[in-house]
């Protein structure tokens, strides 16, 4: 997933209920699918952030010394400005990018 090219909103917006439930016919099922996708997105973002921050990690036994790394701060600011995982999941859902199937059928 390319987080720089997403068109998901950063702020909270109101979605049309009919558009959300259009694919499944059930609003609760649609929300459950999007919630599961948001959890997956959150896990991916967290893993990516940890990997990037570990590049800047300095292991020091002294607790008095704290180093500020400007690159680390920039990486953190980038991830703070990203849309939330639920907004990314709703955007993917409305774009038809989430695959789902009903196992009861």
TrEMBL record:
SMART domains: RNA_pol_Rpb6
Transmembrane segments: none
Record keywords, A-Z: DNA-directed RNA polymerase, Transcription
Keyword Transcription (UniProt): yes
Gene Ontology CC terms, in alphabetical order: DNA-directed RNA polymerase complex
Keyword Hydrolase found: no
GO BP: DNA-templated transcription
Pfam family, one: RNA_pol_Rpb6
InterPro entries with a match to the protein in the record: Pol_omega/Rpo6/RPB6
GO molecular function, a single term: DNA binding
Listed name of the protein: DNA-directed RNA polymerase subunit omega
Native source species: Flavobacterium stagni
Lineage per the UniProt record: Bacteria, Pseudomonadati, Bacteroidota, Flavobacteriia, Flavobacteriales
């Amino acid at each position: 997933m390319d987080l720089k090219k997403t068109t998901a909103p950063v702020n909270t917006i109101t979605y049309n209920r009919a558009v959300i439930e259009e694919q499944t016919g059930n609003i609760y099922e649609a929300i459950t699918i999007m919630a599961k996708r948001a959890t997956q997105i959150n896990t991916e973002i967290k893993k990516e952030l940890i990997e990037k921050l570990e590049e800047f990690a300095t292991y020091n036994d002294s607790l008095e010394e704290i180093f500020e790394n400007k690159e680390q701060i920039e990486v953190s600011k980038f991830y703070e400005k990203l849309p939330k995982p639920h907004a990314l999941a709703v955007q993917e859902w409305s774009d038809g990018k989430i695959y789902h199937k009903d196992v009861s059928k």
